Structure formats: structure tokens, C-alpha cells
Amino acid sequence: MPTAVDTTALQATLARLAGLVAAAVPRAPGPGDQSQDRRRRLAWQLDDYLLPRVRDLEAPLVCILLGSTGAGKSSLLNGLVRHQVSPSGVVRPTTMRPVVLLAPGQTDAFMAGRVLAALAEADRLQLVVHERAFPEIALVDAPDVDSVEAANRKAADELLQAADLCLFITTAQRYADAVPWEFLRRAKARGVPLLVVVNRLPRRAADREAVLRDCRRRFEEAGFGHAGPGGRDLPLLGVVEGARDPAVDGLDPAAIEPVRARLADLSADASALAAVKAQALRGALAGLPATVDEVARDLEADRLRAAALRAAVERAYATEHGRLQDRLAGGDFLRGEVMRSWQEFVGVGDVSRWLSSGVGRVRSWLARRFQPARGAPELQRTKERAFDELVAALVRHADVAAGNAATGWAADPAGALLLDDHPGLWGHGPELEAEARALLTEWLGRLTRMVEERGQSRRAFAFVTSLGVNAIGVVAMLAVFAHSAGLTGGEVAIAGGTAVLNQKLLEALIGEAAVLDIVRDAERDLRRTLRTALDRDAARFLDLLEERVAAPGELRAAAGQVLAEAERLIASLDGS
């Protein structure tokens, strides 16, 4: 493999694609959804094979020994080096920690090449150095492809994605099993060159030839006819039943001599090694657009699922927002404890009498009524009761909205999974009450500032301010409640007499036109404030559906850029 080839551009496009794939996490996967597995497999191939291999074309060739439980992978490895380097049997340490066999002096090159080095650094691989290993080849004893442990099957899948060469071991009894063929199809799609070893063949030559002939037919029908190293016919090597060497817990070296010879010849031929690596790299790069397209289609399907779930939440909260606004417009907040306590404090008759006596006498009455020792606690109590009513109503409507949204999600398989992970979504959020009070406090502050900024009589407002901002704020707040209910003049006097007096009190102090302008703007602000509180509660749902991934088109475009750079690199390799 030539060292003079510049792979910088290809590395950059691969790194960009790897970043997009890493972020392409589905937001609403359904039960049995395979999108996570497809994305994980692609991410592994990019991070642990393509990028490392492109960075270091000279790193040792990685040959994965793949097969079913008991097929003889460890026995083959031990027989190749005539030493027990990987314990054989159904229950083996290698199921969780695969063995990597390296020749002396090859460890640094293997780790520097980075193909599978991340696993080694994480102590997920056991590196074994032996003098009979094959220089420039790292032989990896992978977990069983049909293991009962999901973690083992996942590890075997990951190792396949990082292979330059796959040495597939099967038996005369199990070469037609379905599970191994799933892995073989992935190997074909990834373009990994294959060597096939059929273990435990019958002793009679005629029977042995019949098994090998049928086995080869199956591989050829599945499209593996030219899957061997260098694109040649698929090598099919047989080992007779019982050809074992107990001393090394492996297959008889004489029986597996054709396998050892193949690997030894490959190891000794730099151009052959380069050709196999190039074949694997070509295959992986050529299959990349199709694999990326699968992940992109998964993203598109996920977007549709997320949109349906988002719509259910938006409908539920919009409905309850409308009902809350209807309550505000219906005057609910004019007829509660708030108005009764305020009426007792100011005295409706007193307000009416002083309003008819002129502004000067109104101010004198206010000064007496709102003395700090008496007025401040009452004002605070009135404000808190008003907030209590608003917040309690808001929480009730949010609770209904959350329940309806969760019910909608529960009917959707993807939504049901999200609910399982977030059971608190069945009710309003724990922070809603505190957040609503904070929002209403901010609203009251804005209302008070509006009165100060827009009042026509600065002198009058200065007087009111001397009583404390709470006084004018609470008076204005109750006037807003009256306006929110759509009541004016005599209607307000009937439905909420105190509220109209508050409005008249404001008009006497800062001017009728200013008050009307203020209460209209403040009423709209109050409605927005209540909507903001509901939106924050709905965000608990919507944040789970937030789009943090690349668009499907970005993934496809990035894969296209990789392919363009790969073609340039492959042309360089072919011309070298």
C-alpha cells in the first residue's frame, strides 16, 4: 500500500459524515425499531474502520474470525499457532473479550493504526503476541454471531464492520443456518473479502465433496462467487471431523495447513496485503451511500413520528389555553375571594364618596387608607390572593393538557416508549407553580411601569408612588381583570363593583384615556403571560422531540462528498 497517497481530503469528508451520523439519534423510535442499530453500525464503521484505515493505509490487516457457537473459531486460531492462545468451548472468555493475535513487533503498529485500537485501549480486546502469528495480519477471535448474549452479537457485528478480511468458520452440519447468513450478507454489503473454512467434514471423500459442493452452491447463489481476496473465486477450505490436537486445544495443524498457507502467503506478500486492504476499503466506501441512505430514511420516518407526537401536545395545550382565556373573559377572577377582600379593605362606599369629591380629596383619602402600617399587608394579601386564583386555574388547565397529551402519546408506540421513560408527563410539571408566580410578578411589574410611564399627570402619579408601587399596581391589576372580562361602565358596576371603582380611581389620578390604553395593553400582556406559562409546561413534551440531528439531505450530501474523494483516492491506489 503506497504511503505517498494524500488522504487528507477524504479524512475530512469522512470526519464530517461521522459527526452527522453521531448526531442522528432518533427522537421517537418505536418498539422493535432497527434505526438505532443501523446508525450504530454505520457510526462504528466510520469511526473504527474507515477513518483509521484511511489515516494509516500501512497498518496491519485486520482479519476477523467469525462464526456460530462451537464452529471452531478458537480451535482454528490455536491450531494455526500450535498454542492455546484462545480457550475453546461453548463458554469462553473470548465471548466478552475477543483475542487479537499479533506477531512480535506488531503491537505498536496495530495500536497506531487505530483500527480496533479504541477497543484495545478500553480493555475490550485481549492482545496476544506469538512468534507463530502472521506478520502484518491481526487475527481477531470474535464472539459467536448466534450468542445468547446480545452484547456478544453486537461485538461480533462491530468487529465485522472493522474488518479488512473475514475468515468465516462454519461446519458441515450448520453452514445453512440463518443467523450466520445475516452476518455474511452484511459482510457482502460492506464489501469485506472472505475466506470460508468448513469444519467437521465427513471422513469419506465422496461425502466430503458433496458437502463442499453444496456449500459452494449456496455461497454462489447468494452472490459470493467472487468475494475472495483480490476479487477472485471464494476460497472454500475444509477440515475433517475429529482433526484436533488436544495438546494445543485446537485443530490439527496438518488438517488446517491450507488455511495457514493462505495466511502465510498473504502475510509475506506486501502487494497482496495492499490489494486486500484496498478491496475492503473500496467495498466499504462503495457501500457507504446506500448505508447512509438507510439512516437518512430512518430520520425521515422519525421526523414524521415526532411531528405527529408534537401535534398532539400542541392541540392539548392550545385547547386548555383557550379554556383558561374563556375563564378570564368570563369574569371568573372578578367574583372570587380577591374582590371580597379588596372590597373590605378599600370600602366601596368610601371610594365612591371620595371620587365625587375631587382629585385632591381622593389623594387625602388614599394617604389615610394606604398608610404603610395598615395598607402594605392588605395590598400584599390582595395581590397574593389574585395570584393564587390565577395560578391554581393555570395549574388545573395544565394538568388537563398534560393528561390529554400523554393519552395521545400512549396510543402511539413511539410516544408510549417516551412516556415509559418520563412518567411525570401524565401531569403538570413540578416547576409550573413557581414559574407561573414568577411570570405574574414580572407582569405586575410591567403593568406598574406602564402606569408610571403613560400617566398624564406626573404629579398625581408621584403622589401615588409615595404610597408604594404595590398600591397603584394592585389597583391597576383589578382594573385589568375587569377589562379582561369584557365589561365596561354599568356592566362592571354590576358584575364587579369594586373593579369599576378601581378603574375610576385610576382615571381620576392619571387620566381616563391613559387608563384605557394601559388596561388594554396589560390585558393582552396577561394573556401572553398565561400562554407562556402553559408553553413552558408543554416544553417538557416538546423538548423530547427537539430536532438535534442533521437533516436527511445533509447526510446524503456528506456521503456523496465522501464518495467523490474516495474515487480520487482509489484512482491513486490503482495507479500506484
Question: Can you walk me through this structure?
Answer:
The protein is built from 23 helices and nine strands. 65% of the residues lie in helices and 8% in strands. It has two domains: 58-273, P-loop containing nucleotide triphosphate hydrolases (Rossmann fold); 306-545, no CATH class. Helix 12 (337-346) runs antiparallel to helix 15 (372-410), helix 17 packs across helix 19 (469-484) and helix 17 runs antiparallel to helix 22. The model is unreliable at 90-95, 345-355 and 486-499 (pLDDT under 50). It has a seven-stranded mixed sheet, with helices on both faces. It has helices at residues 8-23, 35-55, 73-81, 107-113, 117-121, 150-161, 178-190, 205-221, 257-268, 270-286, 288-329, 337-346, 348-355, 359-369, 372-410, 413-421, 432-454, 458-466, 469-484, 489-495, 497-510, 512-542, 552-575; strands spanning 61-67, 99-102, 126-129, 137-141, 165-171, 194-201, 236-240, 244-245, 250-251.
Strand order of the largest sheet: 3-2-4-1-5-6-7
Based on secondary structure, the structural category is: alpha/beta
How many strands, what sense, and barrel or not for the largest sheet?
Answer: 7 strands, mixed
**DSSP helix count?**
23
Task: Report the principal-axis shape.
Answer: elongated
Distance separating the two termini? 9 Å
How much strand? 5-15%
